[in-house]
Specification:
alpha/beta, Rossmann fold, 3 domains, seven-stranded mixed beta sheet, six-stranded mixed beta barrel, 27 helices, globular, binds iron/sulfur cluster
């Protein structure tokens, strides 16, 4: 048998015959894990790694005793969080010890029950079922879904293995659910997916305008950075709900749901009308302003105010405020991104920044706050909507670069992106996709129109779920579960919202036979028969070096950063860091200080379009608008991890509830804590009533963490980003005596 690096690594566990993996030695749980935590992890000291929940990317100091992580505290000298952490960060180690960890591969048997199997059997079944589907129905018959929770090396490995190695045509990531809108908005206006800001801008603004963003809850440490602002800033929140951030703001514009695009055009209208624009910046650094000015002339505040449900003076005074202060920054997140017209709304915010010259200076910017810890890494390196490294699949020079750096034949590189997430589900419905490999995400809970999603997942000929837990709604549907290590149990790099690359490290041993996703990919590559293509992918840090080369010459160039050790010592580094460039440790860096953008002519674009009504109308018998969002600072997405912490559970709402305006509740005879049936055209769920004037009349709010919330949501999508519009669907309310099930 010829020597092979992967077989070398797992040593006697492999036996190959006729080029096929046929046997893996039986290993009891605990005998086939990640081994001991590496010695350089200061077995009795402290080591810092980036948090594995949100995109803020806080540094957490993990305290080790005898090579075991025993506790953590927020890193005092990390430039992101300066010694602060939200509850999720403080409890980051707790989910690792959960009893429902996946510790062995599980394969569904002929009786329909998931039963333990050896890794050899699991790998063999993965390969045989997926290869058979491809042989019978074509390479497009198997697709993958990844996650912004993986470090960038693993994301790159997944995308490269699936597309270059296994020949899959379609794959996407759960970043489609949160950040696709910002990606498209930035690409079309700046020429690259490039959030321009640094967190110091939160502290250096005179005016901060938050649209569809609730950082008090969703990004608490970013809110702490706002609180540190010493410039007496005006804080403006544009949101239908009186969120925690709106309550802390100096102004709240309670716009009607989905009215934000029109409102922003009306603000631009006033700025143009009054001449409150930076003509010199527009002339020197942008293209398309005249068309934009003509467009917004059609949005006079007097008309827009009526449609948006706010006062004319609020629009006029917001424009005056933007004009009157030197440093204005515009921030958005899911309230914008998860809209049927999210891309154009984000671009309206970008336009406000461009036309007033609020970009490239301290305290300014058109700033998308990312969602997941490594959503930025997924956006650039997952090999889904971009060719790995933020390139175009159809760019011959980029393809040649990938060929040279990775040693991949051009013939193996697709010529265009595959289907988006929702289109993959449509392909399942048509029978075009019959096998699906889901890594670290939970669409049976999180995907819009959940009943359809579950029905389609159940229809697959073969569903593989690679995850930390066996109990996720998606893992329960799987034919094969591959047990994966989680954050804290492996090495890699995340890229946060402000483009900062930060290191994660192994500080704990994965349980049982669980392996890092990186090692699972290595084993699958070998089992599939494409191991030679990934022979150089020996470790996350080796792959990081490959990714540095792939980034070279791109706007996201980080070829000038060192290895993990240097990144660690510097407290992370924000791209770009070109080869030979010196960056001061802890420096905060923003883009576009020179007014040059990443478009071919160096000019930013104004992109605009007439607003459209939401796809589902809100009228009898479904007269309320359902708004969804984050429930509390202690909850994360589908709660597969935060739900494991007793502390975080105590900090979260005690019962799943729906927020209702008291006036609406009175008309429906709904009292505080009554049970309410919330129904849409797609199904009904039962929740406790929570009466609050935080939601406007005619709207209700339910948290995304509630497993049934997406039974209600309507599957419409931004046409440019294909991001689901979670923030709007029509529902009805009805008081009931109690839950119909216990
Ligand atoms: Fe982690 Fe985000 Fe909380 Fe910071 S704000 S500790 S990155 S979850």
């Amino acid at each position: 048998m010829s020597k092979h690096p992967i077989r070398e690594r797992v040593g006697a566990m492999w036996h190959a015959r006729d080029g096929k993996l046929t046997q893996l030695l039986d290993r009891k749980p605990g005998g086939f894990g990640l081994g001991q935590v590496p010695r350089d992890r200061a077995p009795d000291g402290t080591t810092t790694l980036v948090c594995g929940f949100c995109s803020t990317g806080c540094g957490l100091s993990v305290h080790m005793r005898d090579g075991v992580a025993v506790n953590l505290t927020p890193a005092v000298d990390y430039p992101v969080n300066h010694g602060m952490a939200c509850p999720k960060g403080w409890e980051a180690l707790a989910p690792l010890a959960a009893p429902d960890r996946a510790t062995v591969p599980l394969l569904r048997n002929s009786a329909g029950v998931l039963e333990e199997v050896r890794w050899t059997a699991a790998l063999d079944r993965f390969v045989r079922r997926f290869q058979a589907l491809q042989a019978a129905h074509g390479p497009q018959a198997v697709a993958f879904l990844g996650t912004g929770q993986l470090p960038v090396e693993e994301l790159a490995f997944l995308g490269a293995l699936a597309k270059f190695g296994m020949g899959m045509v379609h794959g996407d990531a759960n970043t489609r659910q949160c950040m696709a809108t910002s990606v498209v908005a930035y690409k079309e206006t700046f020429g690259f997916d490039a959030p321009p800001y640094t967190y110091a801008d939160l502290e250096e603004s005179d005016v901060l305008v938050f649209v569809g963003a609730n950082p008090c809850i969703a990004h608490p440490i970013l809110w702490e950075r706002v609180v540190r602002n010493r410039r007496q800033p005006e804080i403006v929140v544009i949101d239908p709900r009186r969120t925690e951030t709106a309550q802390a703001a100096t102004r709240h514009l309670a716009v009607r749901p989905q009215g934000d695009l029109e409102l922003l055009y009306a603000v631009a209208h006033v700025l143009v009308r009054e001449g409150w624009i930076d003509r010199a910046f527009i002339a020197a650094h942008t293209r398309g302003f005249d068309g934009f000015a003509t467009h917004v002339a059609g949005y006079p505040p007097a008309e827009v105010a009526v449609r948006c449900g706010i006062a004319v003076e609020d629009i006029e005074s917001l424009a005056r405020l933007i004009h009157s202060r030197e440093r204005v920054s515009f921030w958005w997140t899911m309230g914008v991104n998860q809209s049927h017209q999210g891309v154009r709304t984000a671009q309206a915010l970008i336009a406000l920044a461009l036309m007033t010259g609020n970009i490239g200076r301290p305290g300014t910017g058109a700033n998308s706050i990312t969602g997941q810890c490594n959503a930025m890494g997924s956006r650039l390196f997952s090999n889904t909507s971009n060719l790995i490294g933020g390139h175009g699949f159809d760019d011959p020079a980029a393809r040649a670069k990938v060929t040279a750096v990775l040693g991949v034949d051009d013939a193996r590189i697709p010529t265009r992106p595959g289907l988006a997430y929702d289109q993959i589900f449509e392909a399942i419905a048509r029978g075009d996709v019959r096998g699906l490999w889901i890594v670290g995400t939970n669409p049976a809970h999180s995907w819009i129109n959940q009943r359809d999603a579950r029905e389609l997942l159940a229809r697959l000929d073969f569903l593989v779920v690679q995850d930390m837990y066996t109990t996720t709604e998606t893992a329960k549907l799987a034919h094969l579960v591959l047990p994966a290590a989680g954050w804290g149990e492996k090495d890699g790099v995340f890229i946060n919202s402000e483009r900062r690359l930060g290191v994660i490290k192994q500080v704990a041993r994965a349980p049982g036979q669980a392996l890092s996703d990186f090692r699972i990919f290595q084993l699958l590559a070998d089992a599939w028969g494409c191991g030679d293509l990934f022979a150089r992918w020996r470790s996350p840090e080796v792959v990081f070096a490959l990714l540095k080369e792939l980034s070279r010459g791109q706007p996201c160039d980080f070829s000038g950063v060192g290895g993990y050790r240097e990144l660690d010592a510097d407290g992370g580094v924000q791209w770009p860091v070109r080869a030979g460039e010196q960056v001061t440790a802890g420096a905060e860096r923003r883009l576009f200080a020179d007014g040059r953008f990443f478009t071919p002519d160096g000019r930013a674009r104004f992109v605009f379009e007439a607003p459209r009504p939401p796809a589902e109308s809100v009228r009898t018998p479904y007269p309320f608008t359902l708004l969804t969002g984050r429930g509390s600072a202690s909850q994360w997405h589908t709660e597969t991890r935060t739900g494991k912490s007793e502390v975080l559970r105590k900090l979260a709402p005690a019962a799943d509830h729906v927020e209702i305006n008291p006036d609406d509740a009175a008309l429906l005879h709904i009292g505080p804590t009554d049970w309410v049936r919330v129904s849409s055209r797609r199904g009904a769920i039962e929740l406790r009533a929570f009466l609050t004037r935080g939601v406007p009349r005619g709207s209700v709010f339910a948290a995304m963490h509630v497993v049934e919330t997406n039974v209600l949501t309507f599957p419409s999508f931004d046409p440019y980003s294909r991001q689901p519009a979670y923030k709007h669907c029509a529902v009805a309310l009805e008081r009931i005596d109690g839950p119909s099930r216990g």
